[in-house]
Amino acid sequence: MAAKTEKYKGTLTSRVAGWRVWVQTGFLLIWASPFLRLHNMCSPVFHCHACPLAAFACPIGVIAHFSALHVFPYVAIGTLAIFGALFGGFMCGWVCPFGFLQDLFAKIPTPKFTLPMWAGYSRYAVLVGLVLVVPYWLGEDSGWFICRLCPAGALESAVPNVAAAIATGTHEIPWPSAIKTTILGLFLVAVFFIRRPWCTLFCPLGAIYGLFNHVSFFLLRFHDRKCIDCKNCRSLCQYGGRTDVRVGTSTCNRCLVGEKCQAVTLGTALDRTDE
Amino acid sequence: MPIAILVAGIISVGYGVWGHMVPIVQKPEKPEATESEAEAEEPPPPPPPADPWMNGPPSDPWMSGPPSDPWMNGPPPDEPPPEEEPDETADEEPAAKPPEEKILDEPEPVLIREVTVGGVSRSASGQIVRTYAANEKPAALCPT
Questions:
Q1: Average pLDDT over residues A76-102
Q2: For A114-128, what is the mean pLDDT?
Q3: Chain A residues with CB-CB distance to B113 below 8 A
Q4: CA pair distance A148, A50, nearest whole angstrom
Q5: What is the pLDDT of residues A36-55, one digit of tens each?
């Protein structure tokens, strides 16, 4: 009885979750490096390769362009399979620079609205429609090509390149299209009131890694036998919904905040599930 | 299951890097000195035409009466077929052929690099074509 009334301090992993910002900062120095240029290889995160500091190629951009060329992207698919099989949604919650940017915006004290879990299925529509089907049938010149709509490309590439062109007095300024600018504007508004709006609603890479949440080597599990029905999980997850329901699903970005619940554990696929 | 996916991913990356070759059509080099050659080959401008009325107005062509009927003595005989002129260019060197496009088998990482700068596109015939000539540099930014 005394053990149950004692405040649960969380596991080592949940305490490490407090250092997530520093881990994301460290990875940001890899994806946006002024010294590293390997655009012939894909990164496993959502970062536009037209960004002046981009070290690698964006996997979604590569998949979309290869779809337009009718060539199978073995390197991009293999890269996502490797990192997805190992870490799954951890790539979203701990490594992705665009997700990190949205987390920083979320720290601004504005009223936050949570989205229902089923809203995450729109990511698969973006993945299948804008990344695969539209480039394959209409080519990369189509206005619905993912890179022509992507707010990450607008923010990480268009803004700095336009600023650089204006600063150097270049006659040809690479202005983004009107629709891309509009989407960027909507994103910059939504990011103050919704945690990770792009990740939750539209990110095709998050859709892929979400699928790996079910089969990755590192897994988050909710154990019914360990649940003491304290109902803290109702408010632990910052992205809405109950922790006990969201853990292990394709919508979880594995930020590990939910592991403050003693019924949620981080393990591997080799761990036995029966206790 | 994750181990199988991991192995499949490693094999996919390995094949993409070392085994997957993509045929890319390379445009020929663009000629560099075009302006100076064009100026050297230009013929001198023709002299201004002389005044046609310098020797007075033309005479009346019908002063000696209307022209005679050319068929007054019947239709002209059939002309023999013209003789074939000798090929004067047989001994000369053939004209220089325009540079042809080359088809290069490039590994997938090269294609990844090209798509990041808009260096390739798919033609109507289904071929992957470089958007810049062999002696040109690709665009610095992705066109999207």
A1: 93
A2: 89
A3: 39-40, 57
A4: 12
A5: 889 999 999 999 988 888 89
Best of B1, B7, B12 to mutate (most A CBs within 10 Å, chain A): B12
Complex ipTM above 0.90? Answer: no
Count of A–B CB contacts within 8 Å?
117
**Whole-angstrom Cα distance, residue A150 to residue A215?**
28
Shortest Cα distance, chain A CAs vs residue B47, angstroms? 44
Mean pLDDT is highest, among A130-144, A217-231, A250-264, for: A130-144
Task: List the Cα angle B110/B114/B120 in 5-degree steps.
Answer: 120
Contact present, B22 and B108 (Cβ < 8 Å): yes
Instruction: Assign 3-state DSSP to chain A and report helix, strand, coil percentages, each to 5.
Output: 55, 10, 40
Q: Which residues contact A185 (CB under 8 A, 6 or more apart)?
A: none
Interface test with A, best of B116, B117, B123 (most A CBs within 10 A): B116
For residue B112, the chain A residues in CB contact (below 8 A) are: 39-42, 57, 62, 73, 75-76
DSSP one-letter code for A195: S
